[in-house]
Amino acid sequence: MINSIESFKQSLTQAGFHGFTLRETKLPRLNLMTDNNKDDKIAELEAKLVTARKYFREQKAEITDLKAKLEQQKSPSTKKTTDKRFKPPSISEVAEYAKQNNQNIDAQAFIDFYESKGWMVGKNKMKSWQAATRTWNRNNPSKPTPKSNADEWANAGRMI
Question: Do 71 and 92 fall within a single domain?
Answer without folding.
Answer: no
